Amino acid sequence: MSLDNILKQSLSRWMTGDGPNNSVAISSRVRLARNLAEYPFPGRASPSQLEEVEQKVRRWWNTGGLESLGITDYISIKDIPENERLALADKHLISPKLARQGYGGVLVNKDESVSVMVNEEDHLRIQSLMSGSQLREAWNLASQVDDLFDAGFCYAWSSQTGYLTCCPTNVGTGMRASIMLHLPGLAFSGQLALVLGTISKVGVMVRGMFGEGSEAQGNVYQISNQITLGQREEDIIEALNRVTDQVICQELDARQKLAGTDNLALSDRVWRAYGILANARVITSTEAMEYVSLLRLGLDLNILEGLNPRILQELLVFAQPGYLQKIYNQVLSPRQRDVKRAELIRELVKK
Amino acid sequence: MSLDNILKQSLSRWMTGDGPNNSVAISSRVRLARNLAEYPFPGRASPSQLEEVEQKVRRWWNTGGLESLGITDYISIKDIPENERLALADKHLISPKLARQGYGGVLVNKDESVSVMVNEEDHLRIQSLMSGSQLREAWNLASQVDDLFDAGFCYAWSSQTGYLTCCPTNVGTGMRASIMLHLPGLAFSGQLALVLGTISKVGVMVRGMFGEGSEAQGNVYQISNQITLGQREEDIIEALNRVTDQVICQELDARQKLAGTDNLALSDRVWRAYGILANARVITSTEAMEYVSLLRLGLDLNILEGLNPRILQELLVFAQPGYLQKIYNQVLSPRQRDVKRAELIRELVKK
């Protein structure tokens, strides 16, 4: 298959970049942690119990339990070549943990807006992923999937606390809602630390683009709810929405000021970033993300044109180690990845 | 006039890059310091004496004293707009000192291989400039010019020491022979300090591309004779030739090794340099020279192609403050120069 086709077929719905506030908001995600009442949490379950959970979910899906969602495949992690597992994590369809642990599985629908991990930290991790700022829509979709599972299984649930989960930080709603924001304006104008520091005081977490423990790359930050217990899902979503709307406003404001005060310096940085991406022969992921962030900012501010702004989403996924191995269909050393990444980026930027 | 035409007409013979050893040797130059016996050195001469010297030289040229050289113009420094004086220095036709002092003049032939400064540090500074490593040829040409002047004027000369000059370091032959070498191979492989340190122990001086007191930019070094007294001109030229031939060999050797050991890292640096030059919107002279040095190395090693290797010579001259002001026909602040330089380089690299 040509590189072009591989990449086209690799675009998840959330990567298209056509959602609301798409100049800042990359994607919105809601995930729900759920467990089956009759089994211990995956971490304490025996191999045969884990196997039983997977079998049960699979059978239920096979008999049409998720028919309305258009889920076409149940992917068992152990059936995927090791080097391709990370590619699924790069697309945020599974967690890096599931990719690494080597067992469990995932249900994915056609446009990859829904994925359900089985036997990750919890028996079920229902996830919906959407483009731009669509936290409400993502919640609605995840909730629909949850209702379907609820009809087929008996969830571990307590009337006092709500859903029971492996990790206490998820108990209650079991929900983590998050939004990925591209914040180059705040970064370049030196306001990022202040803005992110302020919002982290109102029950919101800020992380890099691969969630917990990941570093921010390319000025992309994930903002999510901290509290899962004692609040209604709708209220959590609304609160997070208010915060992100504010951050988006501040980012747009910072960009306008940047463009106004010294457009030439910014323009120089943007064009150099383009020049490097279009010509480098070896490039690390961190460096690539730094430059593509500038490139995307340049596109948003009309400093340069003729490139699809989706380049940011594409690099967020395709330039990651796992996806590179999938695209080039081989296990790559870090150095080889840097070479192939440069090759891929030159292709992407050429268009 | 279009930029293209201005640049075409601005190419001195030495800038064409077609001389011997042109992958390393940029240009060869010989200059002879001479003074007229009946006048004090310019630094001690009265304004009317300086005027007399200029008048004398001018009249003699007008009556055909230099006919065989094709010198078409006597340029009086005070007649040139201030911002264009530096452009002559950028092309090495006059010294920065003459450009700054605002009086004196210069005779230049059609292909700019000969220039004679009048009333710089000495009454006459005869200079020949050639492409590549042509020290002998440059000496022959300078010597012919010298003979012509010798027939028309009475030089300050002593049978014991030779030609008398304003500065004692020039007494004797009054000759400074120099060659400009592009040494990126030695620079990137870390051998430059050693090589230049060694040759400076054998009576050879190493300087930046604008001679005394100038910093090396873009890995371009000027190597010249230190001694002017007590040696025959031919012997000085031969000694300098031997040293430069060695340096050229070492440079070519270093390039081959660089290309052999980690071609990818080198290729990456070369292509990024190209990407930056082709896209930057603001660029300093030092930075431009750093990248064009890499670009030229890449052309010499066939890492990239389709560009005229003369780009190095062009940037050595056209990207300098004086020449930029001439090309764009206006006085430019340092910041404006960085912008215009970037604009010019994008044009030059596009071809």
What is this structure's SSE topology?
2 copies of one chain form a homodimer.
Chain A: H1 3-9, E1 25-34, H2 47-62, E2 71-76, H3 82-90, H4 96-101, E3 105-109, E4 114-118, E5 124-131, H5 135-152, E6 157-158, E7 162-163, E8 175-182, H6 184-188, H7 192-199, E9 204-207, E10 220-225, H8 233-261, H9 263-277, H10 285-300, H11 311-318, H12 321-327, H13 334-350
Antiparallel strand pairs in A: 1-5, 1-8, 2-3, 3-4, 4-5, 6-7, 8-10, 9-10
Which key features would you list for this structure?
homodimer; 351 residues; Creatine Kinase, Chain A, domain 2; eight-stranded antiparallel beta sheet; two-stranded antiparallel sheet
- Oligomer designation: homodimer
The domain count of chain A comes to 2
Helical content band of chain A: 40-55%
Q: Just give the CATH class of the largest domain in chain A.
A: Alpha Beta
What's the total helix number of chain A?
A: 13
Mean pLDDT of chain A: 91
Q: Which radius of gyration of chain A do the C-alpha atoms yield?
A: 21 Å
Q: Report the span from N to C terminus of chain A.
A: 19 Å
- Strand residues, percent of chain A: 15-25%
Please provide the count of β strands of chain A.
Answer: 10
CATH topology of the largest domain in chain A, by name, is Creatine Kinase, Chain A, domain 2
